[in-house]
Amino acid sequence: MGFALSDMTLSSSAFGPNGSIPKKHTGEGEDVSPALSWSNAPSDTKGFAVICHDPDAPLVTPMGTYGFVHWVLYNIPGDVAALAEGSAEFTQGKNDFGKTGYNGPMPPNGHGLHQYYFWVLSLKDAVQLDPGLTMWELLKQIEPKVNGMNRLVGTYQRD
Predict the structure, then answer these.
(1) Residue 96 class from Cβ within 10 Å (0-12 exposed, 13-18 middle, 19+ buried)?
(2) What's the pLDDT band for 63 if we cut at 50, 70, 90?
(3) DSSP 3-state of 130
(4) Which of 77, 116, 82, 113 is closest to 96 using CA atoms?
(5) 121 SS3 class
(6) Which phi and psi (to 5°) does residue 23 adopt?
(7) Strand, helix or coil for residue 93
(8) To 10 degrees, the CA torsion angle through 134, 137, 143, 147?
(9) Taking the CB of residue 18, how many other CB atoms lie within 10 A of it?
């Protein structure tokens, strides 16, 4: 699977690029997803998916995957360009906590600063995928349909 960054932009009113994610959006706070918005999607976009992944988590699975997935969201229509804070809209996938929906940053105590990659992927075809897909299952299914993507990186460190 290969992806390349596009001209899309992804932003949040909760934190800026490489900025600290507020505790409200973490496992130590209210644990609600931050508001996100995107722009400059390719003109042929028919849908979106959003992912939050922590590549700094020291986990490698027997399947060769790495890091820790905090959020998988998909079946987002192509005319949507934002998600409200705590959004429960659209189809939730399975995160690495074994739950569906968003569960925010919660690195191990003393583990230092982690980076959290919030990704938006635009799709040239509308899809209706079943709920509960993992990030890796989702990426396998949408890879041929991805026509644009970009990320917003936030940071968090446990108190």
Answers:
(1) buried
(2) low
(3) coil
(4) 116
(5) strand
(6) -55, -30
(7) coil
(8) -20
(9) 10
Please, which residues have CB within 8 angstroms of residue 46's CB and are 6 or more apart in sequence? Answer: 77, 78, 123, 124, 125, 126
User: Tokens for 13?
Assistant: 């009113």
**Cβ-contact 39, 116 below 8 angstroms:** no
Beta-bridge mates of residue 76: 48
pTM above threshold 0.90 = yes
Q: What per-residue confidence (pLDDT) applies to 1?
A: 41
Residue 157 to residue 43: CA distance in whole angstroms? 38
Nearest to 138 by CA among 50, 61, 79: 50
Residue 58 or residue 47, greater confidence? 47
